[in-house]
Amino acid sequence: MALSFYDISVPVFVRGLGQLSHVLDKGLAHAQASGTDPAALFNARLAPDMFTLAGQVQSASDASKLGTARIAGITAPSFPDTETTYAELQARVAKTIEFLNGVDRAGVDGAEAREVVMKVRGNELKFTAERYLLQFALPNFFFHVTTAYDVLRHSGVPLSKLDYLGRF
Amino acid sequence: MALSFYDISVPVFVRGLGQLSHVLDKGLAHAQASGTDPAALFNARLAPDMFTLAGQVQSASDASKLGTARIAGITAPSFPDTETTYAELQARVAKTIEFLNGVDRAGVDGAEAREVVMKVRGNELKFTAERYLLQFALPNFFFHVTTAYDVLRHSGVPLSKLDYLGRF
User: Fold this and answer.
1) A88: domain range?
2) Which CATH number is A123's domain given?
3) What parts of the sequence cross the membrane (chains A, B) (predicted)?
């Protein structure tokens, strides 16, 4: 059984986005049930110079669609960060999943040696697609999904790690 | 170029633990420079029923050593959660990296179809080693590394995402 570059990338992002959608649902349900203003939760953050919950969701969307586009050598759709409601955030996640599910497996499998060039804070970085996925795209994606979860937990939303990991 | 099961697992954990050690160093330095009690930071958490910073580090250690042991079919060393200082936490991270660096590449490569059985909250779950790595071990590991970072950020430690991602 050979490992597939598609299998270690696209479905991992899709699963993580599904769990992100799930914890967002729980966050909104908690706000509604407890009489908390959903807008306060939407704009909650862990530090003044960190992204809000909404920003973490937008970043998880970007991390997965740009990560996948870079390894596949394709262009990701542009999603401006204009969401102001939970429904819009959920639509953003759903659009991201839709894009990822439409990525051609054959365009990813075998692409692990493809050159990926990206700019980070003014520096041009060169990776193989495999190194980019393992050292940048996946850790970056999980950072934003986890931080969205952490913002919700810090705001009192009852979640457990299985809400993040998902069902097996 | 074929993907290697070792390359998509062990070095990913080792890199993440190195960054965890780096953000812990920055946390301690910030506490010392700002006159904050390091013990308060050590025991800081994002919610009353979440792990402290120390607990997140212990969990990242466990996630990586148990994750690797399960996919390699070996036994991980037992590290009791007795750390009470930053130096002890850093030693825990270093011991975990030492264990991971000693894992035989040949025992991991080709093991992607190995059966992994684990108990989660009373349920016995069966995975292939590949599915276990991608759906459980890696997301779980990044959860704890990110949450350690988030606790530090929430406590006022100046960090940027590149402290988490590392140098390229």
Assistant:
1) 10-165
2) 1.20.120.450
3) none
Residue contact B135–A46, C-beta within 8 A: no
Which pLDDT tens digit goes with each residue over A141-162?
999 999 999 999 999 999 999 9
Whether A4 is in a domain gets the answer no
User: How long is chain A?
Assistant: 168
Total tally of structural domains belonging to chain A: 1
Evaluate whether residue A3 is within a structural domain: no
Which residue on chain B is closest to A167 by alpha carbon? B135
- Please tell me the distance from the alpha carbon of residue B148 to that of residue A77, in angstroms, as a whole number: 32
pLDDT surpasses 90 at A3:
yes
What interface predicted TM-score (ipTM) does this complex get? Answer: 0.97
In a domain, A2, yes or no: no
**Chain A residues in contact with B142 (beta carbon < 8 A):** 138-139, 142-143, 146
Q: What is the pLDDT of residue A42?
A: 95
Closest CA to A120 of A45, A61, A56, A70: A70
Q: Which residue of A has its CA nearest to B142?
A: A142
pLDDT digits (tens, 9 = 90+) for B58-75: 999 999 999 999 999 999
pTM score: 0.98
